[in-house]
Amino acid sequence: MKLGMPTLIEFKSLEENLKRCKELKLDFIELNMNIPIYTPEFLPAQELLDMKFKYGIDFTIHLPEEFDLSSFQPSIRQGHLDRCIETIDWAAKAQIKTINMHLNKGIYFTLPHTKVWINEQYEAEFQQRLYESYCKLYEYSNKLGVELCIENTANFHLPWVSRALDRLSEFDNFFLTWDVGHDAVAGFQEEPTFRRFSNRIKHMHLHDYNHKSDHQLVYSGVVPINERLQFAEDHQLTVVVEVKTSTTLAQSIEAIRNNYKRS
């Protein structure tokens, strides 16, 4: 198991994050592409490699949540697919192994007494577009030695999402990120999916949920932190302690080191 941190919005440069990562004796930083300075255009692969060797710290990549590889709008779907391919190239050149991504559950129409999800109503088309996109991505990422890990966003328990994951699992390089805080938000309804695909989990996002908000200090809510850390250790996962401030990150790392004893 390796522990890492997210790129923190309070820091204005990668080097500030690297210094904090080094101070906390962590193994890696997850570059969040929602922040403009952590994209291929602003951060060349060679610069990442130089930083990696200077600080002895690895990286993972977090793709923007809005990417929709099953979009019913062809040009949007193609644009998101192209950006994923560009990111895979960037990761490979920077010797980054893991890209964290999301499975967009789509939009819904609110009726007087229910919600109608478009991806559920048009599930065959949704699944086919998603499958075709991932077919291209898995083939390309496999050639470059990059692993794509699909993160739960309190959506893996939705029937049409669960069935889509089943279909994607046909690919040998289908991998998952277990976000344990998002799972808690969903009332732990996503956990059965992760137990079913336990041998496909490569990455974890660790944070707590206090019935009001997630991304909270570990051990402050309902997530069984030690149990999740034990799973991560047993499966040799990379674990991002995904809290949002430098102070909470330091407190979380200290709490893990005080409360979790590696077996």
Description:
The structure is a single chain. This protein is α/β, with parallel strands linked by helices. It has helices at residues 14-23, 45-55, 74-93, 118-121, 123-144, 159-168, 180-185, 191-196, 225-234, 246-259; strands spanning 2-6, 28-32, 58-62, 98-102, 108-110, 115-117, 147-151, 175-179, 201-206, 238-241. The chain has a domain at 25-177 and 196-201: TIM Barrel (Alpha-Beta Barrel). It has ten helices and ten strands. Strand 3 (58-62), helix 3 and strand 4 (98-102) form a beta-alpha-beta unit. The mean pLDDT is 97.
How are the strands ordered across the major sheet? 1-2-3-4-7-8-9-10
Oligomer: single chain
Question: Structural class from helices and strands?
Answer: alpha/beta
CATH topology of one domain: TIM Barrel
For the largest beta-sheet, the strand count, sense and barrel status come to: 8 strands, parallel, barrel
Query: What proportion of the residues form beta strands (DSSP E)?
Result: 15-25%
Order of helices and strands: EHEHEHEEEHHEHEHHEHEH
By CATH, the superfamily of one domain comes out as Divalent-metal-dependent TIM barrel enzymes
Rg is: 18 Å
Can you tell me the CATH class of one domain? Answer: Alpha Beta
Q: Report the average pLDDT across residues.
A: 97
Ends distance: 12 Å
- Percentage of residues in helical conformation: 40-55%
How does the overall form come out from the CA principal axes? globular
How many β-strand runs? 10
Low-confidence stretches: none
Q: How many helical stretches?
A: 10
